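To assess whether ligand presence alters the predicted conformation, the chain was also submitted together with NAP. Input:
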Amino acid sequence: MNIADSTALVTGANRGLGRQLAVELLGRGATVYAGARNPDSVDLPGAKLVQLDITDPASVAAAAEVAGDITLLINNAGSSTGSGLLDADVEDIRLEMDTHYFGTLSVVRAFAPKIMANGGGSILNILSVLSWFSLPAIGAYCAAKSAEWSLTNALRLELAEQNIRVAGLHVGYMDTDMTASVTAPKSDPAEIARIALDGIGAGVYEIVADETSRQVLAGLSGGAAALYPHLP
Ligand SMILES: NC(=O)c1ccc[n+]([C@@H]2O[C@H](COP(=O)([O-])OP(=O)(O)OC[C@H]3O[C@@H](n4cnc5c(N)ncnc54)[C@H](OP(=O)(O)O)[C@@H]3O)[C@@H](O)[C@H]2O)c1
């Protein structure tokens, strides 16, 4: 895909990785819709603002009318409730699935027909190394990211016939609000945005953006015993 010729929508573009993706798209010459729950929170000169709460069907439908000329959709918006699966409030667990899985699916269902009508294009879902590896303290987030990975794989097959390439990006910790309490090394979201768009430009289906994700991907073939060696 030629990024400079594209018209893109980034969900959750007001901060974090989403903002960096929008900045990078603008820098490469794309036309950019910056989607945000609160458009007043977007500071992106040159971007078009779109109100978009991915868990609100009316908001998604309205955004699809406003930004119906897109050829690139980046599903970046994500929640992080810090919930384990056994003891956390079930509403928080549900929010993770509502956002990462049903929210992303809702946006794809609204925009895929638009992209197809515009001659085809690409969809990028921002996934995680935690689509492949679980941390029990945030098991709800991990399960939602796994579900979003599976959704990405299924949609890739379904939308290929409609001239829409569906990609996923896997990455470990990035330095954003989401990881404010994490002290482990974090990558710069501006660098991850560059890797993401290089991948989309090159037609890569699975963009593995950092060393942590590459190691976990390589470890998957060893099964649970290799991934979780501390298990009794
Ligand atoms: N940070 C990491 O280490 C890391 C690692 C791997 C993957 N990821 C993924 O990367 C993506 C971006 O995360 P980030 O680190 O940039 O997080 P962030 O700084 O916490 O930003 C999250 C973004 O998602 C938006 N959002 C949340 N729920 C939404 C909804 N229902 N509708 C629309 N927008 C919504 C937020 O909007 P508001 O400002 O309105 O809340 C915000 O713009 C997420 O999908 C996350 O799962 C992050």
